[in-house]
Amino acid sequence: MEEFEKLLEKVNLRQYREMYRNIKIVEMDLPKNIQALFLLYDVYWNKKIYISFEEFYKKYSEKYSSEIEAFREKTTMCKTCFYKGLPARIYRTWASIITQIHAGYVAEAVFGKNTVEMSEELDHKGIDFKVDYKGVVLNYQIKKQTFSREVRKEKKSGKSIEGEFIELKYDVPSGEYFENPKTKKGELRLPYKRFIENKNLKRLENGFVLFTKKPFISKKKEIDV
After folding, report:
1. Total count of domains within the chain
2. Could you tell me the pTM of the whole model?
3. Biggest alpha carbon distance in the chain?
4. What's the domain range around 203?
5. How far is 183 from 27, CA to CA, in rounded Å?
6. pLDDT for 139-167, tens place per residue?
7. Are residues 119 and 215 in the same domain?
8. Which residues contact 61 (CB under 8 A, 6 or more apart)?
């Protein structure tokens, strides 16, 4: 977990934001054979290879080069436009999933080795990662939301899925609240105050918001009783 967190600390979020924020060319649904999910889980979770986004994108584009080009031709999008938009699209997926994978590592540090499962298959079922602890199955879903708290929720699905569904909600206040956390009256701005009071989350210096062990420890204690 520590090694993975060191990778996240090095990510220049501001630079990526400036590079990709306004590039939304490739926004259509990508076919399953060129989605990045499988490779993300394989690299960062299964093989525990902690590489930068640039290195990951190189792996992705090389692995799926023929499938990507076939899709581009099918969409009739110009080559320059498509290959300008694709990295921005994959980056947004990458940033979201590596945050989720970090949460899986934190959960594993609490519940124990080999208690956490994460895969493309689970993702398609609406499960970001699954914990199997003392025979109790917990299906975690990471949700970005303004108010951060852990909420148990029934999974709405036509199929029966074993285990309890738990939403882990998090907010990502704008960096300006951390650079200037107080109002003119000297009071803490609400988004900043709300964030620092939420012990389920922590913020790295570069702006990455990650989960702490707290929500997992509290759930583990419930099971251990």
Report:
1. 2
2. 0.88
3. 60
4. 114-224
5. 38
6. 999 987 644 344 444 444 445 789 999 99
7. yes
8. 68, 86
